[in-house]
Specification:
Blueprint lengths: L8 H39 L5 E2 H4 L11 E4 L2 E5 L20 E3 L23 E4 L2 E5 L5 H7 L7 E6 L1
């Protein structure tokens, strides 16, 4: 830089303004980490007790899903572990196993089914297990038929897969 004593008043004032602006910028940067921490804490506190939003409802709007916000999709609750997302972009619907979303509810609910019994009476909707598989009754029947109508009898039981 040249000798500032040679600057006219306008140039000297411009230089003074540039120095004041730079000082303010440096103070702001020095305080930025504290401001971000306070804002993040306030945001997390504000959304902590809010119920999870339904993902399919969000995708019809332009709301962003913020960090730590919870959403539900097909009965499963997720928490956003990253930045803000538009619901039409990278959400649990597009990538439910990504590093950006934490699954809150269990993958498969625990279902306890009794073992099939030849002496039991079954009504439509009853479930049981037999030979390592789960079945749902689709035709009500009593013990008189149970010996011949037990799972996997087609038309009486629906195979639900491994027990």
């Amino acid at each position: 830089m040249s000798d500032i004593t040679t600057l006219d008043n306008g140039a000297l004032e411009a230089l003074r303004q540039a120095i004041v602006t730079e000082q303010a910028r440096r103070l702001t940067l020095a305080d930025a980490a504290r401001i971000v921490t306070e804002a993040s804490t306030a945001y997390a506190t504000a959304i902590k007790d809010q119920p999870a939003d339904d993902w399919t409802t969000l995708t019809t709007r332009t709301d962003r899903v913020g960090p730590n916000q919870r959403v539900t999709l097909a009965g499963i609750e997720y928490r956003n572990k990253s930045g803000a997302w538009l619901p039409t972009s990278a959400g649990p619907a597009q990538d439910p196993t990504s590093i950006w979303w934490e699954r809150i509810t269990p993958t498969v609910p625990t279902v306890t089914r009794p073992a099939w019994s030849a002496t039991a009476t079954y009504k439509v909707g009853d479930e049981c297990t037999r030979n390592g598989r789960a079945y749902r009754c689709i035709v009500a029947h009593g013990a008189a038929y149970a010996g011949t109508w037990g799972p996997p009898t087609v038309g009486v039981w629906t195979d639900l897969g491994p027990a």
